[in-house]
Design brief:
Layout lengths: L17 H10 L4 H23 L5 E8 L4 E7 L6 H6 L4 E12 L2 E10 L8 H27 L1
Antiparallel strand pairs: 1-2, 3-4
């Protein structure tokens, strides 16, 4: 997630034969880390696209968080301005909101108060279901991206 406030859902995707693909890229003179980042980003896009379909709005993005020679972590989640999407993903318990003053539209017009009791909300996840339903397609996207790059370097 950009800004990384919100519903971080962690999932690890292992690509069988990845070490072999990376070795082939290295032998062909490619920047292995750069190629792996590009492939991981392609896989993350598959999950991001599904998350955007399920989320309360189309504000899901990806960002490479960490990268090494044989591993890449890509964050998938709401853009920073949509930090409140975490409540859709994880839900929220009933709670009191305090402020000075709080103003909002009520049934009979504008309400100004110093506190309000929020009833909470049930979770309506979109990130976890996107990962769960598109994991295989994401892996295929990573593999296809790396194989295509190998073919282009031959």
């Amino acid at each position: 997630m950009r800004g990384r406030t919100g519903a971080n859902i962690r999932g690890t995707v292992q690509v069988e034969g990845l070490a072999n693909l990376l070795q082939r890229l290295a032998r062909l003179g490619a920047d292995v880390q750069k190629e792996l980042e590009a492939a991981a980003s392609c896989g993350a896009e598959v999950i991001k696209d599904r998350a955007n379909e399920l989320a309360p709005g189309p504000h899901i993005d990806t960002e490479v968080e960490e990268s090494s020679r044989d591993s890449v972590t890509v964050a998938i989640g709401p853009i920073e301005e949509k930090w409140h999407y975490r409540f859709f993903e994880l839900g929220a318990a009933a709670h009191e909101v305090k402020g000075g003053p709080l103003a909002f539209e009520g049934r009979e017009g504008t309400v100004v108060t110093g506190r309000v009791r929020h009833p909470g909300m049930a979770a309506r996840p979109f990130l976890r279901p996107a990962l769960d339903t598109r994991e295989d397609q994401a892996i295929e996207a990573v593999e296809e991206t790396l194989k295509a790059r190998i073919d282009s370097l031959r």
